[in-house]
């Protein structure tokens, strides 16, 4: 098989052309087909194929394939089109995750499963069909109006999986994962809590004002704690000092983990605002609180209910949250490196549809398996750094990479020696576990809130709030700045690292707040509406004024999920970062040795939606930073991106449609 055209779904890998039959398809209603193209489609080809064959070309499966609903009489003509390589049925055997058969079940062989349904599915009819196969506690959600999927949660006998996979509305079936809170039990704090790598930003008036962070945890925070109470006694809502909304369908009591985590993000003592030594990293921000237990099936009249992560993120966003913190992870099938599943797909679908949003997830506890939401492509996966910002080291966090080879975790933020709000106390603070990625994640979300405030208040590029420079950043730009602000923990090791990602965040080293510093920041924030299509390039000239400082460029893009979670690689679109010096030397993104870029390499990174170039002692003179759209298989209508460049370079206003 030619690896360029191999399609991998579940435990099956095949070349669609070799699987294609010359027989005429049987007549009947439309059904699902895999349509593979001969090469990445240009924008003109996409337009023509949609017009001629009514293709969607949005449900992508690597390599170079799409899942489409086709009438049988369309197939022969489509196969003859010069842009098409093969058209083969998407049969029911591709719809069931291989791990579905081995998932833990009860004594009656019953286990919980999630089904993704095709967009044209009649959910009432689907529920009836599943009930006929013995499905129990069947719940269905339709998120298509907000850009999500139709999904069904149910309990089912494992021996009925093949029958379920054969149902015409079923796109994918996988086991319901176990969800883990990412904090080791017990242990004394190493030292008094600190926001560590965030603290250098507060002195410039950036505390999170007008920013909203969503927290999804194992219950609500303790709203009677002084970090969250409203001084006027108002209930949660837009006018509340701290809490805009609480979603808690399970009606759980406040929990210690949820209270501590919310305090890390934005807790602030109502009686001493801005002065509590254990206040949150973005203590001026507000919070939207949700209960991750609502992701599980629960009994509610007149029928069982369950939410999805897409629905929870959407609800938080509707309440004002654009930064979403999750101090937990879901286990994924296989028991090894984290695979791409429905939870990861929910994150990527949500952020693809809501370009302003950023989702963060903890990497897990050391020694555990990673899992989503942090391992989603567009998410920021966070591990805990020790409390010494001068010499940070890994304190807690599961190592990557993901099963398809993407770098996770993305970065580290202080998560050791942290003190925060204690549940069941009026205003008590203290430690819990000595180190936890659970505590690093809300502090990373706080860092993202400070970065967002930096742009929305017009601190870029002058370093002081300037109304004319206000910019509403994309989630990709927030992620790019966090990664750009990360410094390698062990420069001699492979970089980016499977255990520490792109390094430990030091925001003050990235954000241009000191007008006397020669190190300046340039950013480009391009939304999908003006994004690139296959074969296009975006070129950015940069003048290096002094070679004494390093030149660094970071590219991030937010991309859609694949059509089926169980694909061999989750990457849909591929942008490449190329940095060219005055003498023509070219550096490719993520081609590194000892944490610095080197010329050459085996080729561009085709897996990670993050690419970095770091050049020490760059030559003075004109450099060029180029973003190349190698493959844009699904655009909206194009693929946007965020680009961050720093060094001894001129300060320039941001470019992009987010400016107000």
From TrEMBL:
Keyword annotations for this protein? Hydrolase, Protease, Serine protease
Region spans: Disordered: 10-30
The text of the family note is: Belongs to the peptidase S8 family.
Instruction: Indicate the segments forming the Peptidase S8/S53 domain, all copies.
Output: 209-503
Q: Which organism is it from?
A: Kitasatospora paranensis
- Entry protein name: S8 family serine peptidase
Quote the InterPro entries the UniProt record gives.
Answer: Galactose-bd-like_sf (IPR008979), Peptidase_S8/S53_dom (IPR000209), Peptidase_S8/S53_dom_sf (IPR036852), Peptidase_S8/S53_subtilisin (IPR051048), TagA/B/C/D_pept_dom (IPR034058)
The catalytic site is made up of: 217 (charge relay system), 257 (charge relay system), 438 (charge relay system)
Pfam families linked: Peptidase_S8 (PF00082)
């Amino acid at each position: 098989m030619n690896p360029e055209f191999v399609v991998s779904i579940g435990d099956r890998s095949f070349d669609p052309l070799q699987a294609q039959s010359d027989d005429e398809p049987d007549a009947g209603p439309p059904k699902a087909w895999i349509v593979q193209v001969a090469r990445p489609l240009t924008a003109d080809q996409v337009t023509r194929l949609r017009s001629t064959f009514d293709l969607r070309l949005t449900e992508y499966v690597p390599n170079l394939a799409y899942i489409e609903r086709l009438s049988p009489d369309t197939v022969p003509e489509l196969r003859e089109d010069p842009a098409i390589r093969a058209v083969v049925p998407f049969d029911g055997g591709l719809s069931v995750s291989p791990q579905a058969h081995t998932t833990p079940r009860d004594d009656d062989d019953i286990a919980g499963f999630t089904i993704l349904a095709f967009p044209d599915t009649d959910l009432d009819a689907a529920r009836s069909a599943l009930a006929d196969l013995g499905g129990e506690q069947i719940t269905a959600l339709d998120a298509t109006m907000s850009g999500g999927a139709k999904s069904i949660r149910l309990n089912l006998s494992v021996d009925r999986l093949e029958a379920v996979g054969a149902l015409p509305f079923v796109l994918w079936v996988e086991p319901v994962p176990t969800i883990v809170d990412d904090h080791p039990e017990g242990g004394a704090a190493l030292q008094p809590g600190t926001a560590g790598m965030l603290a250098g930003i507060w002195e410039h008036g950036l505390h999170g004002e007008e920013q909203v962070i969503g927290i999804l945890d194992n219950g609500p925070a303790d709203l009677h704690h002084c970090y969250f109470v409203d001084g006027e006694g108002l209930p949660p809502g837009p006018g509340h000092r701290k809490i805009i909304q609480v979603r808690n369908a399970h009606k759980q009591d406040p929990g210690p983990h949820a209270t501590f985590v919310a305090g890390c993000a934005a807790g602030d003592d109502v009686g001493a605002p801005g002065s509590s030594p254990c206040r949150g990293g973005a203590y001026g921000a507000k919070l939207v609180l949700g209960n991750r237990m609502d992701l599980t099936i629960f009994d509610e009249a007149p029928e069982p209910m369950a939410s999805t992560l897409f629905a929870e993120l959407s609800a938080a966003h509707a309440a004002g949250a654009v930064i979403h913190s999750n101090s937990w992870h879901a286990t994924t099938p296989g028991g090894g490196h984290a695979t791409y599943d429905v939870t990861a797909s929910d994150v990527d679908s949500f952020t693809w549809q809501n370009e302003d949003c950023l989702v963060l997830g903890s990497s897990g506890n050391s020694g555990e398996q990673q899992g989503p939401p942090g391992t989603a492509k567009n998410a920021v996966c966070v591990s805990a750094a020790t409390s010494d910002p001068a010499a940070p080291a890994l304190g807690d966090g599961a190592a990557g990479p993901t099963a398809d080879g993407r770098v996770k975790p993305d970065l580290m933020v202080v998560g050791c020696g942290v003190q925060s709000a204690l549940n069941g106390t009026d205003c008590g603070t203290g430690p819990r576990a000595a180190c936890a990625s659970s505590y690093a994640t809300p502090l990373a979300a706080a860092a993202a809130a400070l970065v967002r405030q930096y742009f929305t208040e017009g601190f870029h590029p002058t370093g002081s709030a300037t109304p004319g420079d206000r910019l509403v950043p994309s989630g990709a730009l927030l992620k790019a700045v966090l990664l750009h602000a990360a410094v390698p923990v062990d420069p001699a090791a492979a970089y980016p690292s499977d255990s520490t990602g792109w390094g430990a965040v030091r925001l003050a080293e990235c954000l241009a707040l000191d007008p006397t510093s020669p190190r300046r920041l340039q950013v480009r924030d391009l939304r999908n509406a003006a994004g690139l299509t296959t074969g296009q390039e975006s070129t950015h000239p940069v003048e290096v004024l002094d070679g004494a400082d390093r030149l660094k460029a970071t590219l991030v893009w937010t991309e859609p999920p694949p059509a089926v979670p169980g694909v061999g690689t989750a990457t849909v679109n591929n942008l490449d970062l190329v940095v060219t010096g005055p003498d023509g030397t070219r550096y490719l993104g993520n081609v590194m040795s000892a944490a610095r870029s080197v010329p050459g390499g085996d080729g561009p990174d085709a897996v990670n939606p993050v690419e970095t170039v770091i050049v020490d002692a760059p030559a003075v003179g004109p450099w060029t930073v180029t973003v190349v759209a190698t493959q844009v298989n699904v655009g909206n209508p194009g693929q946007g991106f965020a680009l961050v460049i720093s060094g001894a370079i001129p300060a320039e206003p941001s470019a992009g449609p987010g400016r107000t």
